[in-house]
Amino acid sequence: MSIEVSIINNKASNPATLPTLTEELRQSILRKTEKTSLFLKQAVVEFPNVTFANSLGAEDMVLTDIISRGSLPIEIFSLDTGRLPKETYDLITEAESHYQKKFKIYFPNFEKVEDYVNTNGINAFYQSTDLRKACCFIRKVEPLTRALASKQAWITGMRAEQSKTRSDLPFREYDSSNKLEKLNPLSDWTEKEIWGYIRIHSVPYNKLHDEFYPSIGCAPCTRAIAMGEDIRAGRWWWEDENGKECGLHVKQNLNP
Predict the structure, then answer these.
(1) Beta-carbon neighbour count of residue 231 at 10 Å?
(2) Which partner from 121, 128, 177, 202 sits 20 to 30 angstroms from 255, CA to CA?
(3) Pair 56, 27: CB distance under 8 Å
(4) How far apart are CA 139 and CA 126, in angstroms?
(5) Are 68 and 101 within 8 A, CB to CB?
(6) pTM for this structure?
(7) Pairing state of beta strands 50-53 and 153-155?
(8) Which CATH class is domain 15-238?
(9) Quick check: helix, strand or coil at residue 154?
């Protein structure tokens, strides 16, 4: 299987990250910011032991900013898979300095990583969807399970517009896999509103976004996209687009 792909010169400036800040867009961002802030405040009241899974994407940085501006008592954590791009680590450092807040970092179980690599190969995830999902489970799903243990609810930066698998994303749902409430306060935000907020408030963000990386995961599994491609086309691009999830947000089938 070939994994090579032709992409845009990734030194070009991505216009999606620089939306024109019209008055209409500003007002839309203001309304949704107030709505999101209220949603988060209510979440803290209902679920005092709530946590925010910050994947360090543009959406997650918007939520981090809203949480910080509201001085909301919400824990923020991230998953370090061990194969993140340098730019993602740079963002963690920048964001912690900017917000004067440490993110809690969870790592995969090193024995499971060693076993996977020694059994299958360092880049075995390119060989089949099953091997890719097994890698995601070790590096993402299992650490997430530990991060959510004893929590009442968790917050994500997911948006309905992001992909076909998220098109019906509710603001609130029960996470049957982790057995707690899952909150998606940015479900109805558009990409333009996300980037408008980032520009208005000078929010730190991953610089790979400027190089046509709208969705960023592990370095070997993320590429830049061409103009007009789906915003998640650069994630696991060698697989069928209908199954492009790492397992963090896959709903458990309760009716086998």
Answers:
(1) 16
(2) 128
(3) no
(4) 15
(5) yes
(6) 0.87
(7) parallel
(8) alpha beta
(9) strand
Higher-confidence residue of 254 and 58: namely 58
Mean pLDDT, residues 36-64: 98
Residue with tokens 């091997």: 131
What residue has token string 């899952």? Answer: 182
Q: Pairing state of beta strands 153-155 and 75-79?
A: unpaired
What letter represents residue 141's amino acid? Answer: V
Greater pLDDT, 168 or 110: 110
DSSP secondary structure code for residue 167 in this structure: T
Evaluate whether 185 touches 39 at the Cβ level (below 8 Å). Answer: yes
Reported as a single tens digit per residue, the pLDDT across 207-255 is 999 999 999 999 999 999 988 888 888 988 888 766 555 545 455 443 3
Task: Please state, in angstroms and rounded to a whole number, the distance separating the CA atoms of residues 35 and 190.
Answer: 14
Domain ranges for the chain:
15-238
| pLDDT tens profile 12-34 | 578 999 999 999 999 999 999 99
* CB of 224 closer than 8 Å to CB of 213: yes
Distance CA 102, CA 46 (A): 24
Gap between the Cα atoms of 129 and 127, Å rounded: 7
Which one of the listed residues 136, 218, 221, 246 is annotated catalytic? 246
DSSP summary character for residue 111: H
Specify whether 135 is catalytic.
no
